[in-house]
C-alpha cells in the first residue's frame, strides 16, 4: 500500500442471515490506495460462505450456514507491489432460522371407543425449532377422522403435541384407523411432514334399547294372554344375539317375556277381584343380555284394571214364592231374590234384574218381584 498503508473497516447493521437474500451486501471493507488493488477474504473455518468483490463488499452466498457458526475474517489487499493484511474480524452468526423438525414421541396410538372426550395422555410429537413457531397443520385420512381427533394447531410452551379426542368414538360406525399428516410452519419454513396413526379399538358394549321405557294399561286377562309387544326392543352394538328377561320384584312370576322378542305374556292370572283391589300396578325391569352377558334394562310398567269377568250369581238356584188368590193387590210384593257379582268395581259388579214371563210379574232394581194382577 503505497502512501497510507491502512485498512478501514465499516460494519453494516446486522440482520438475521436467512432473512437476507443471496448476494446481499452485509459488510464493506474500505481499502484506499492510489494503485489498483486486489482484495481477498479468508475465512476460518473454511470454506468461506461469503464473497468479496474489489469494491470491498462482502456478500452472502447460497452456502450460508444453517446453524450458528463463528468465523474469523481476514482481508488482504494487494497492489501488486506489496500486500497488507487486516486485523482479524470476529463474525458471529446467530439467530439463524432453521426449519422446524419433529421428534416422534409416539408415531402410533391406540384409543378405545367411548374414551373420554378431551385431552388424552398420548404425546405424539415434540417439536424442535429455535424460532417462534406459528402453526401446526394436520390432514386426516380418512377425512372423517377430523371429527374424531384433534391436534393443537398452536404450540404450548412444552412444544409437545398431545392427542385430543373430539367426539365419542364408535368402533362400529367410525373409521377404525386414522392417519394424521402433520406439518409445522414457523413463518419461514415448513417442516418435513410426519405421519401418525391412531387405531380405534373395540369395547364390548351393553345392548342398547330403542325406547327408554314401556308403559301398558289393560284390564284383567287370563294366563297366557299377550299383554305387550314391541318390534324395536334392544340390539347389541357388536351384533350378537340379544335375549330378554323380565323381573317384577315381589310380582315376578305374573309376567314372562319371549327369549328373543319383546313379547310380554301374562304367565299367571292376576285377579283383582280376588285380591280386593280396583287396579294394580306392576313395576318391572325388562333386561336385554348380549352374548357376552352384558346387560341393559329399561322399566316396564303394567297397570291392570278391573275387567267384567264375573257373571252375576243368584244366592239360590231357585226361588219359590206362594201367592194366595185375593191376597195381593196390584203391585204388591211377591218376593225378593238375592244375587251377587264378584267383580271388584262398578259398573262391572252392578246388577239389573228382569223376570219372565212379563205378563203377571215385574221386578224392581231392589230385586223385589211384584205382581201385575190381583
Ligand atoms: Ca363396541
Ligand atoms: Ca356387546
Ligand atoms: Ca261382573
Ligand atoms: Ca273383575
From TrEMBL:
Alphabetic keyword roster: Calcium, Membrane, Repeat, Transmembrane, Transmembrane helix
Coiled-coil annotated spans: none
Is Ligase among the key words of this record?
no
**Where is this gene product found?**
Membrane
All copies of domain Cadherin, residue ranges? 210-314
The record's annotation in InterPro entries points to:
Cadherin-like_dom (IPR002126), Cadherin-like_sf (IPR015919), Cadherin_CS (IPR020894)
Where mainly found? membrane
Q: What is this protein called?
A: CDHR2-like protein
Native species: Mya arenaria
